[in-house]
């Protein structure tokens, strides 16, 4: 079936084949569904083809095919290198009354991280709280990384403290981003003391901590 084939294209990141298959459905007068279109959008997302994902969303709207959380989340994720478009899509989900989850917000936060928009990433975390969407480790990690890239070390540590208070799991990515933020902020005294009291057990036995070492060398 078309649904199975499109799902295979999605998993294989074959976005061209997915678009061709949707065109074939149109020629054969086979109705597109939310599932088939979502698979195609996801294939475009995995293939870093944000423009194709946005075109599909427009086609779905014109053909009155419902967009769900999966569709919109994949489209926002496709715009991870286009943070302005990603935020516009996130706002559009609210207009369309599409439920947003941690993945939807996470894709937008990740786009802000890559665009070095730490304040917008911070605002999105607050938006998650207002929407009653629980923060996840990947979302918080992306926000801390956004602060790190913008040399906002104090904000990064503040986010880390919030993760601890909310009992959100922290991992190597979390701590590396926070230590790197201290490094870039030339907080060489803060990083070593902070890592001794916050480093998770898996890192306690590590032979070396490159980011922390660079912070001390500043």
TrEMBL record:
Family annotation (InterPro entries): PPR_rpt (IPR002885), TPR-like_helical_dom_sf (IPR011990)
Pfam families to which the protein is assigned, alphabetical: PPR (PF01535)
Keywords linked to the UniProt accession: Repeat
Cited Gene3D superfamilies: Tetratricopeptide repeat domain
Chain residue ranges for the region called Disordered: 193-218
Keyword check for Repeat: yes
Protein name per its UniProtKB record: Pentacotripeptide-repeat region of PRORP domain-containing protein
């Amino acid at each position: 079936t078309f649904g199975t084939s499109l799902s295979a294209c999605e998993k294989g990141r074959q976005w061209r084949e997915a678009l061709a298959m949707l065109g074939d459905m149109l020629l054969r007068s086979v109705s597109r569904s939310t599932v088939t279109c979502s698979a195609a959008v996801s294939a475009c997302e995995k293939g870093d083809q944000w423009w194709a994902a946005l075109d599909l969303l427009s086609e779905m709207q014109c053909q009155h095919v419902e967009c769900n959380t999966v569709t919109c989340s994949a489209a926002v994720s496709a715009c991870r290198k286009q943070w302005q478009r990603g935020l516009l899509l996130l706002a559009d989900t609210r207009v369309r009354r599409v439920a947003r989850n941690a993945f939807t917000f996470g894709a937008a936060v990740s786009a802000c991280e890559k665009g070095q928009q730490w304040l917008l990433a911070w605002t999105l975390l607050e938006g998650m709280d207002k929407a009653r969407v629980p923060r996840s480790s990947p979302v918080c990690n992306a926000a801390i990384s956004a602060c790190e890239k913008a040399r906002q070390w104090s904000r990064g540590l503040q986010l880390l403290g919030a993760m601890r208070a909310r009992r959100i799991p922290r991992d190597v990515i979390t701590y590396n981003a926070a230590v790197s933020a201290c490094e870039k902020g030339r907080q060489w005294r803060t990083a070593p003391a902070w890592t001794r009291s916050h480093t998770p057990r898996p890192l306690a036995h590590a032979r070396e901590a490159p980011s922390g070492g660079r912070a001390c060398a500043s």
